[in-house]
Amino acid sequence: MLPKIWPVTCHTDQVGPGSTFVAVAGKHEHGVNYISQALELGATTIVVEMGTVLSPEILAKILELNIELSEVGNCRQALSNLSAAAWGYPAKKLKIMAVTGTKGKTTSVYSLKHLLTSAGYKTAMLTGVNNIIDQAVYDAPLTTPHPDYLQMFLAQCVTQNIEYVVMEAAAQAFSLHRLDDVEFSAAIFTNLEQEHAEFYSDIDQYFAAKCQIFKHMKFQAPIIFNLDNSWCLKALELAKSLNLNYKTFSFDNLNNPDYLVELQQDGVAGLVFSFVCENVSHRSSRFVVPRLWGKFNCYNLAGVIACLDSLGLDLVEIKQNLLTLQPAPGRSERYELSNGASAIIDYAHTPSSFIALLSLLRQLTKHLIVVFGASGDRDKLKRPLMGKISAQIADQIIITTDNPRTEDAQVIAQAVHAGVLPADLIKILLEPDRAKAIALAVKISQPGSIIAILGKGPDEYQIFGREKTFFSDRQEVLR
Questions:
Q1: Cα 297 from Cα 175, distance rounded (Å)
Q2: CATH class in words for 89-322
Q3: 3-state DSSP call for residue 258?
Q4: pLDDT tens, residue by residue, 138-150
Q5: Topology (CATH level 3) of domain 333-478
Q6: In the structure, what pLDDT confidence band is assigned to residue 157 with cuts at 50, 70 and 90?
Q7: Pick from 184, 170, 262, 254: which is nearest to 219 by CA?
Q8: pTM to 2 decimals?
Q9: Which residues pair with 100 in a beta bridge?
Q10: Is 27 exposed, middle or buried (0-12, 13-18, 19+ CB in 10 A)?
Q11: Could you identify which of 5, 256, 353, 356 might form a hypothetical disulfide with 16, taking C-beta atoms 3.0 to 4.6 angstroms apart as the criterion?
Q12: How far is residue 251 from each of residues 65, 75, 229, 278, measured CA to CA in Å?
């Protein structure tokens, strides 16, 4: 079990006697509003940003209880620094491997965890799906958690003699100081495309946030780049200017990659690909991965293999252990339906991931049905693009909800619908109730149909306003 009370935290759920409470300003709530509750729970230090105005009642209570009041320039930064110090700087005692990029982070991290564990290393994992220490599984609060959780988690890893921690490193984690006190022993830069327009003003700002990972690399720690992505090429040039240790992989030979990959088989029978170490003694291996499919997953695995090879793991052992690799939850999960159709649940939620997955599924069926929505309070630019792409590739589209949050679900659906070309409008159905949308897809499916249910993947909830209620694509398919 993870400890419930932490020495430093930004959430009153983790405050106990002697805790330091850091009043962080969130998107919807400000920690200042919870200082009184933190004091009642036993906090002995309160941290606020300089210039914060506290009510006379709070100031009187702080004085009455002889509470230390600390003012800092940035509460998020302070939360990381204080948490790391309170837990004894656990990151320094671990080998931490990070995966950053727009797509492929979760699959890459799951693959790293599987291969390291299979090779005999005690391994922990942090993803947006769940967090694992050795064999113990915990709920995941965020793709990259807040630093108070992160430092607590890493401290538990040290206590349990974990050697490797593999984790997703989101752009916002760098921008919001969640990773300030963490250094990486290896990293993979999978790719980059337009995403998170709700947080970053343009893709250049998003790219700059991703590139902050370079400041977190230990001396001579390898970072792996996908040369087939234009933004990764730009990131590589920056890494070169910083004299970082890097390795590259590619599916073509245009940019002189360290690892050259050739996809030889792709489909329901799995992936088969060759992996040639071009600049590293010209070693060659052929990998078979029965449970994963799609060139996008081949890219993910190429980065993983290159990373582990750079750290000295045996390619023969990696080859053997890939035979038992399972897909990450919510990534191309396949279910056979009683009417002879198949359902695929996947987290795809960007235009390029729609193209990659739906193009593959298009080759496998004569009747492709797609069920998806677009998230509220998130990147609005991709909504019409996803509508256009799905309608061009599939035979039937059912537009539904996907965490509308504080936006009007109908307005979101209309934005998706607006991208559909006139010739494809006949393919479109609107069903705002996601459970009914999945049931409708099953109803209109036939033997041999594939139903792609996209966007939520492993997430078992819907968010309307600020209320989170249980919802599972998997459960609805099984129903």
A1: 28
A2: alpha beta
A3: coil
A4: 998 778 899 999 9
A5: Protein-Tyrosine Phosphatase; Chain A (3.90.190)
A6: very high
A7: 184
A8: 0.89
A9: 189
A10: exposed
A11: 5
A12: 64, 44, 11, 12
